[in-house]
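Supplementary Methods. Inverse-folding protocol.

Structures were first reduced to a discrete structure-token string of length 111. This string, shown here, constituted the complete conditioning input.
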């Protein structure tokens, strides 16, 4: 499914925000000394590389198929059962619509 340039940029923005939050949460959980061994904890450089790779991947997204492939690639960021369905085409579409709706709610409250 082709997506207009304006819409794809809006989708990229909400994907970036959501996935960046998930990576930060995962990084913090993995850095917790109470839950991980010191030699398995990620470094700041690991985090920076992950963020750079995510940015590059999101900037390559142009259609729903690309978004689905991105979500499959980063499936470890989605931990609950409901979030696991993002790997399906319908799940990807619902995920993206949900992100856009949430963004609209935030923008409405700010206005």
């Amino acid at each position: 499914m082709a997506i207009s340039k304006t819409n794809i940029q809006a989708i990229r923005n909400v994907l970036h925000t959501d996935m960046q939050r998930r990576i930060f949460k995962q990084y913090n959980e993995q850095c917790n000394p109470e839950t991980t061994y010191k030699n398995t904890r990620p470094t700041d450089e690991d985090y920076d590389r992950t963020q750079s790779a995510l940015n590059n991947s999101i900037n390559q997204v142009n259609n729903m198929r690309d978004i689905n492939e991105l979500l499959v690639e980063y499936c470890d960021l989605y931990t609950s059962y409901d979030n696991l369905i993002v790997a399906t085409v319908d799940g990807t579409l619902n995920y993206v619509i949900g992100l856009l709706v949430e963004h609209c709610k935030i923008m409405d409250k700010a206005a």
